[in-house]
């Protein structure tokens, strides 16, 4: 089978309409032209009547474009949690985001129970440094109140700004009796999507923070550096990776699979299916690999984890992933704005839909949380307003969430020399290292001893 790429619009996979300084990222792809087709849309007459009535009769002057934009936002707000309208300004910023550099605070956000909730702060950003935590509810941005009508795009625009400017967030945290106020200085958020190091001699570690245009290229460089150190085992850390570009997920996956293996298939409403196939073979051979995941691993992360799990190329360790099994297409409009529309669902090589369910690890390892620290609420796909259902698992919403998992503190960079560093105080990472050590020990044992143990 050949890798098919028939859709001309940019395909996007991410956990929520949040932000890295905006948490929204998308690549520069071929643009799909959107034209007006009004045949059969009689209700548009009603819309035109209302627009005319407002312009004629409203007590104050009205900007027609703002009215139309508001109407489009309202339309998309009746759809799933990941479909949204982007003004020209937001759309331009999103095209910058895919290069991994933008201004803001460094938060991932989502809507839960009509509230603006923090999914996770990005490491080493203003939000992370002041102590904002997963599960925090954003009540105000400066003096702007977050209401039930506030969209994620609205929140993104309020929080973004020039480097060096201040912004204050008022936060509700379940474990605190009073509201918390955090004042931060906006910064240029540079997301290094690939970081690598040696945990100890022979055991490599690669952390992917998101799937950008250049993630696959940077991953290849990281693998080359680690292989030069005589690496014999690898930990691939996808925890708190919210996703990104579909093509990037394909290019990352094929660095661990064999040529011709199915990575993911996507299926649209009309039943049309596109398959993404590995077009080359991995340089890692049969090297033991552990993939770390948690509830912050979403979309493109789940594609990679699901492909490696289905092909039994890696052991998946951690907690159940976010559960976003949908694909978004960016549709540019004539005035420079764009629509981000959910157009398909994706399926792992074995045909699984992970929508609302996520990827279940082969080995469940929960983080150790000190008794004096209260676990933060977990936000997954099934918790988002207007989430899509899973046609393969009708009762997916009844799943019980697992405890929150903190983000790994990983300050190394693929652009620097690979360092030999001990594992951090990280239960899941320690377990991954122990599994890889055991894997190597058993592989090197005398076959006669292993045979005797089986008896």
Sum up the structure in keywords.
10 helices; 24% helix; 2-enoyl-CoA Hydratase, Chain A, domain 1; 21 strands; disordered N terminus; 6-stranded antiparallel beta sheet; 455 residues; alpha+beta; 7-stranded antiparallel beta sheet
User: Uncertain regions: pLDDT < 50 for 5+ in a row?
Assistant: 1-9, 15-32, 396-422
Termini Cα gap: 43 Å
Oligomer category: single chain
Described by the principal axes of the CA atoms, the overall outline is: globular
How would you state the average pLDDT, rounded? Answer: 80
Helix content: 10-25%
In short:
The protein is of the alpha+beta class and 455 residues long. The protein has a domain at 191-326 and 342-441: 2-enoyl-CoA Hydratase, Chain A, domain 1. The protein has helices at 43-57, 64-76, 88-97, 126-130, 152-159, 215-227, 246-253, 300-310, 427-444, 447-454; strands at residues 10-14, 84-86, 101-104, 107-112, 115-121, 137-141, 144-145, 166-172, 180-185, 187-190, 194-200, 203-208, 233-237, 243-245, 262-268, 273-277, 289-293, 315-318, 326-332, 338-347, 363-364.
């Amino acid at each position: 089978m050949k890798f098919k790429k028939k859709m001309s619009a940019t395909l996007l996979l991410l956990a929520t309409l949040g932000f890295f300084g905006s948490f929204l990222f998308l690549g520069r792809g071929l643009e799909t032209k959107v034209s007006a087709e009004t045949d059969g849309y009689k209700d548009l007459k009603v819309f035109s009547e209302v627009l005319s009535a407002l312009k004629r009769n409203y007590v104050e002057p009205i900007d027609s474009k703002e009215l139309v934009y508001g109407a489009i936002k309202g339309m998309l707000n009746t759809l799933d949690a990941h479909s949204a309208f982007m003004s020209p300004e937001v759309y331009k910023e999103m095209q910058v985001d895919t290069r991994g550099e933008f201004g803001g605070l460094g938060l991932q956000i989502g809507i839960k129970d009509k509230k603006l909730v923090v999914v996770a702060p990005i490491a080493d950003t203003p939000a992370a440094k002041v102590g904002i935590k997963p599960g925090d509810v954003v009540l105000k941005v400066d003096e702007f109140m977050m209401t039930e009508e506030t969209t994620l795009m609205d929140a993104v625009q309020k929080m973004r700004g020039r480097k060096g400017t201040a912004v204050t967030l008022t936060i509700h945290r379940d474990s605190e009796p009073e509201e918390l106020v955090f004042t931060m200085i906006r910064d240029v958020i540079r997301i290094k999507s690939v970081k690598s190091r040696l945990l100890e001699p022979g055991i490599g570690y690669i952390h992917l923070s998101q799937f950008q245009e250049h993630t696959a290229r940077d991953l290849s460089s990281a693998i080359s550096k680690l292989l030069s150190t005589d690496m014999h085992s690898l930990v691939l850390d996808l925890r708190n990776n919210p996703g990104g570009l579909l093509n990037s997920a394909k290019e990352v996956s094929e660095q661990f699979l064999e040529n011709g293996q199915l990575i993911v298939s996507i299926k649209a409403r009309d039943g049309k299916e596109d398959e993404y196939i590995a077009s080359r073979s991995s340089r890692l051979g049969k090297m033991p690999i552990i993939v770390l995941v948690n509830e912050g691993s979403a979309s493109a992360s789940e594609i990679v984890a699901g492909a490696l799990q289905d092909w039994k190329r890696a052991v998946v360790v951690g907690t159940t992933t976010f559960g976003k099994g949908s694909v978004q297409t960016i549709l540019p409009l004539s005035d420079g704005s764009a629509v981000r529309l959910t157009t398909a669902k994706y399926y792992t090589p074995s045909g699984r839909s992970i929508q609302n369910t996520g990827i279940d690890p082969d080995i469940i390892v929960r983080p150790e949380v000190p008794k004096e620290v209260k676990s933060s609420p977990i936000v997954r796909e099934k918790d988002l307003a207007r989430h899509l259902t899973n046609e393969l698992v009708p009762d997916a919403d009844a799943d019980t969430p697992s405890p929150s998992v903190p983000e790994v503190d990983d300050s190394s960079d693929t652009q620097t020399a690979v360092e030999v560093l001990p594992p951090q105080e990280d239960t899941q990472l320690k377990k991954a290292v122990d599994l890889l050590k055991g894997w190597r020990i058993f592989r090197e044992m005398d076959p006669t001893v292993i045979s005797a143990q089986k008896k």
